[in-house]
Automatic annotation (TrEMBL):
Signal peptide segment: none
Keywords: Cytoplasm, Transferase
Superkingdom, natural source: Eukaryota
Native source organism of the sequence: Dipodomys ordii
Gene name in the database record: LOC105999286
Enzyme Commission identifier(s): 2.8.2.-
Descriptive protein name: Sulfotransferase
Amino acid sequence: MSLDKMKDLHLEGKYIKPETKEVNGILMTKLISDNWDKIWNFQAKPDDLLIATYAKAGTTWTQEIVDMIQNDGDVQKCQRANTFDRHPFIEWTLPPPLNSGVEKANAMPSPRILRTHLSTQLLPPSFWENNCKFLYVARNAKDCMVSYYHFQKMNQGLPEPGTWEEYFETFINGKVVWGSWFDHVKGWWEIKDRYQILFLFYEDIKRDPKHEIQKVIKFMGKNLDETVLNTIVQETAFEKMKENPMTNRSTVPKSMMDQSISPFMRKGMVGDWKNHFTVSQNERFDEIYKRKMEGTSIKFCLEL
Ligand SMILES: Nc1ncnc2c1ncn2[C@@H]1O[C@H](COP(=O)(O)OS(=O)(=O)O)[C@@H](OP(=O)(O)O)[C@H]1O
């Protein structure tokens, strides 16, 4: 059963902030942790495409782009279901009768587009064994932190973030669900040339969507004409997706996601961190960033 059917079950109001429990040293919700055997043993197929991201890095945006490409720019087809039902979120686990990501993925016909926030060391091994295609999207740490903070405030499926000052510490220490941003991004960056990985940046998609979408089209082995490409650029723009009930999570009950606290499609910009970080937080963050990212060649853009 999908989340947007929750109303029918009168489950509203029963959700409380979840407990957390680590998997191999990485924080997860307890529901994910308790379901770990099933997640770890998930059977990927060679024609699966996995959208992998750290939380809040532009997953939903990428899902919409990929779905539009797979459906040759057919807007109606992309309206068939919510993004969370179109592309199973493999590790996501909610209390029954809501289906887990593994159950949804197992029920889906091929070719499957799946999504995950798992780091490389937690990804079910069958993805590597089957040499699946991975589309990794990275977003700069500061904007991810801001976006994740607001998301944890409005989403009952994730822990209470505390104050911004408290959250700042939690995030840099990697004590958020799905673990450290630094380890996640470094892990995927380091293996990008060993597997079929298209590595994109949120900031690049924002600056030049047409160019980045063309890369995705090529990676998916599709050949779409200019008109279709332009339609995809238009339909996946932030303003469009903010109004689209199949992407903006407005069908998720308020008891689960309270969009009056913060909308799911919040700002969709590069550099909102400047409205949150104090000067001293910024200095401290830059120092920690330098230390934690030492030795990696990855470069992020922090403003457009
Ligand atoms: N089309 C488009 N263009 C630009 N930005 C977009 C778009 N769609 C979603 N977003 C922004 O992406 C952030 C949500 O990221 P995710 O989809 O990865 O969230 S989640 O992890 O799946 O909950 C969240 O970022 P913030 O606005 O900074 O909070 C969304 O607004």
